[in-house]
Amino acid sequence: MLHELLHEAPGPSPLDPPHHPPLVLVAASGGADSMALASALAFEAPRAGLRAGAVTVDHGLQDGSAARAAEVADRLTALGLTPVDIAAVTVGRSGGTEAAARTARYRALDTAADRHHAAAVLLGHTRDDQAETVLLGLARGSGVRSLSGMAAVSGGTAGHTGRYRRPFLGIDRQTTRKACLVQSLPVWDDPHNTDPSYTRSRVRHEALPILEKALGRGVVEALARTAALARDDADALDLWAADAEGTATAEDGTLAIAALAPLPPAVRRRVLRRAAVAAGAPAGSLFARHIEETDRLITDWHGQRPLNLPGRVEVARQGGRLVLRQADRADGADR
Questions:
Q1: Fewest Cβ atoms nearer than 10 Å: which of 21, 122, 168, 232?
Q2: Domain at 292, CATH number
């Protein structure tokens, strides 16, 4: 999988010096997953005509984190990776520590990739991480897209879609640890990964073992398969929704009720979510209940007042159309 993803990596950036091979970075925390991936990248990149570098992020959440990041950087350099960046970040509080740390981490990775004109950034997520992500999505009740877990190729800043590659999604965590052991690669086990105050840690050390005890081994593989199937379904529904949105949207950005009403709920609600985000609602703050209430303006209309969505977006039904816009620009609705 790593070999395939490397050969699919984009060509050199126009900002790179002439005849300079494309650069691929690996995000490495020092744990077994990322160190095994860093070692694999160091081996495969020259054979694929690529340069290999790395980024390690210091979240500053533990005593001695700066020294630990420097130690990880030394290990990455010893593998032959260059450049090797240490990115110190400040983790905020929005959405909880886990979400804030993830946001800060990806921002740092994007910054490093932009600075070095990297063709791709490799992440060490494994099949076990995928299973945990599916369970977390199931617990949130957030729909098939959430159940689809992490994509093998995703993300990136504007103009860099597909920047992130996850070549280890088909490999279990035990395999990466064995790979480090065989190569005598020292690894660091983040104590946050066993801290029960973190939701993912509880899923990893409590929920999944209970499921395996009750249902037998193979739960992780089954959840990862579920993610792949759900992703195919979600991608198909998203394409359908994009087509439906084009048909229903007028030049002024309003949506035709007559075009939305006959759509299957899964498609119509995707159209509504896309419209809400386009109007200024933060995607991370839009929950199922927001979209369900908006949907009732179409399917259960009885003169409701306009709805207030996150991001000061107001949605109202006006003359057979659905209007989504910033609240300070709203000017009334059907009564």
A1: 232
A2: 3.30.465
